[in-house]
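note to self — DONT lose this again. spent like an hour looking for the file last time. sequence + predicted structure for the chain T wanted, 540 res
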Amino acid sequence: MTHTLKRTFAMLLLAVFGSAILYNCEPDPDSLGQQLFDKDAATGAEKPYDIIAYNINNNDSIKSDWAQLVSTSGTRVAVLGAFKEGQFGMQKASYITQLRLPDGYQIGEKPVVDSVVLVIRTPANTADDTYYMADKVVAPAAYEKNDFPVGDEKVTVSIEKKTYPTRKYGNAETIKSMKINVHRVNEFLDSGKPEFTYSNKNVTVGDLLGSATFDGNVSTVTATRKSDNTVVFDGKLGFRMNLDKDYFQQNILNRRGDDVLKDAANFTRYFNGIRLSVQDNDGYLFQFSPDDMELRLYYKADKTENGTVTRPQQVLAFDLGNRNTRLGRYEYDRSDSEFAKATKYNETTGDGVLFPQGMGGPYVGLKIPESTIVELKKKFNTDKAGIVGAKIRVFIDKDKTFANAQSVAADRKFILLPNEISKLDEKLKPIFTKDMLKGFPMYYYGKTTIKGEEAKGEYEYYDLVVTQTLKDIVEDSSVVAADKVLYLYLGAFMKGQNDNIVGANYTTRATDMNRVVLIGSDKTEKRVQLKVTYSTANNK
């Protein structure tokens, strides 16, 4: 399979930069390439150059607040679960959020909790992201229940349940279930403090509010009244878990009239929030929709009308939406992993093995050495060479890369930027490479055999397009001895309307569950290389 990620930037540049650049898969005939259009121009020849490729330590941290928890389509997503394997070690993802009382709420007299239900939902599937397996639905026969509560009465209903497996990353083939715990947060979630926007913030928690075994599936539940076939309950796709109703009785309903329940500010400092986490240290990761989570408290309370007192069931639906401080919390244990044992962070000669990982793990620096820039400048100035194309080819180490059973090659996405995101101050923003601004595809995916290793089959590789980037470096007379670095991250640029990329600083890096082992600056045929196709009049 050859999979090409092409970005159409005409509309993007109209919106972001106020000007349009026509999409073109070939470089413009600018000053560096103008010799190609002379009558004596010859066909191009490709020459490889070594690249200094090295791991960059992200301290296992990334900005993971509300603004960063996004998918490719711009949908809000968060990650939950745990996964352990030999290359990267253990990774655990939790989710923390404030909760608010609904606007204009009123709790009647003598309230008593019936139940408290938390629902975790997945987003709708899109062309870029799959959250549940719609083609693997399990729908057993409907069954009857003769005491289903509807208002003040109990009726006979037919209940139909459809179950869908969630899309998972990890050891889902061997570990089917994980225990999800919900804890009350013990400290105020202050989004005004920078530490509450990073994934390594250790938010303290207290009381356990509830637990449930997640079997890897989400489901819909529909209850239809038998007497007239009307739908009396329609539970949207999700995973439902019961929380401790006695705890909410004591800490919410029994506080009726207290100042702590008076307004949103008081309540968020009283209850603080909740944390969703898995108890296990191995299993799988999955994505869910924080905007669609529900926390509902069902209760009965006195209601007086026309002198008559009734006790109808009522619902207190807590607000878990974007008015709340929300945070993805990621923990890592690298001990005994190959990443911990590897020699890394060598910016001088490069690392032999590269370990890019989403959700705040390491990323990769790709440095074009000074000697290469000097040689290419000589070809341009002395030999009148024109660069037809340039790419950085990087191979997957298939023996070390985790093969996720529910993934395809297109799930693995990269971000290539000319600046290091984590080193930018608040006034600076990431920018696209010159190639992306020209309308080039960011990279191509391919497979090939290696001479002498044909028996091992094909190796996956990515060709990162750097034609215009390299042309600008070679053309610029001020670039004499500086090494030039590109930064490779796991993740994707977020898309907006008309499938256009929103901007270089809007990415899925904080929610990308993937990891991959790449072959770096070693001595094999599969080492990272810059491949330049150029031409001169005599093609030398």
